[in-house]
Amino acid sequence: MSLSQGGFFSTYSFFSDAAGVAGNLLAFVLFVSPIPTFRRIIRSRSTEQFSGLPYIYALLNCFICLWYGMPIVSSGIILIATVNSVGAIFQLVYIIIFIIYADKERKVPNGIGAILGIIQLVLYFWYSRSSVQASRRPLLESYA
């Protein structure tokens, strides 16, 4: 079959779209799967022995896939951007609930670490921008 006749290409397009929709449905099921855990956390008003790391990792994964699916980065894969934007919202809500119901002994050091991490990122971007502007000047200037 020739690609120009449309037979193979249309079959490929159909199965590609079907796999994309199936992947979105399965990803959505993955994003809503922690709901029973968070219902338990809200009812008991404690995070008990649950770890918040999986939700942070899932949020980072959603942000990376969301960036990859944006039209300015990759064209034609908007399904990836849509499902990961929904996933990022779910993960943010889970993390906020986790922070609200975390024990004080766990919340204070993590809060201090988060604030210091944000300050470190701001300083990095501030100084990296100024160093890029400074590096545009030539290292050696000729006065001849």
TrEMBL record:
The record's listing under Pfam families reads: MtN3_slv
The keyword Transmembrane is assigned to this record? yes
Query: What GO terms are given for molecular function?
Result: sugar transmembrane transporter activity
Q: Where in the cell is it found?
A: Endomembrane system
Gene3D superfamilies attached to this UniProt entry: 1.20.1280.290
Q: Domain of life, per the record? A: Eukaryota
Q: Which GO terms describe its cellular component?
A: endomembrane system; membrane
Q: What is this protein called?
A: Bidirectional sugar transporter SWEET2a
